[in-house]
TrEMBL record:
InterPro entries xrefs: Cro/C1-type_HTH, Lambda_DNA-bd_dom_sf
Entry protein name: Helix-turn-helix domain-containing protein
Domain HTH cro/C1-type span(s) in chain numbering: 15-46
Lineage: superkingdom: Bacteria
Length: 88
């Protein structure tokens, strides 16, 4: 299912719902992911100031995939820049 997220306040409850649907307690999830329970709680409350690397680790380990929808004219420029960046 695709859900549009526009803020941390929207992402947090989704992370919590996914974790609960998997039947995983917050402390168990935090331990298995390698973050503190406090950090996971901050994400689930929609905290706006979290570390990106840890956030993406939590999302990945809970099976949440991030898809960014970029306007086509911008996506073309980004793809060209990525290819040039790898080659140079």
């Amino acid at each position: 299912m695709k859900i549009t997220i526009q803020s941390a306040e929207q992402l947090g409850p989704l992370v919590r719902a996914v974790r609960k649907a998997q039947g995983i307690r917050q402390d168990d999830a935090a331990g298995s992911i390698g973050v503190s329970e406090n950090f996971l709680g901050k994400i689930e409350r929609g905290g706006a100031t979290v570390q990106w690397g840890k956030l993406f680790g939590v999302l990945r380990d809970l099976g949440i995939h991030v898809l960014v929808d970029v306007p086509d004219e911008i996506a073309t420029k980004v793809q060209v820049a990525r290819v040039k960046g790898r080659a140079g």
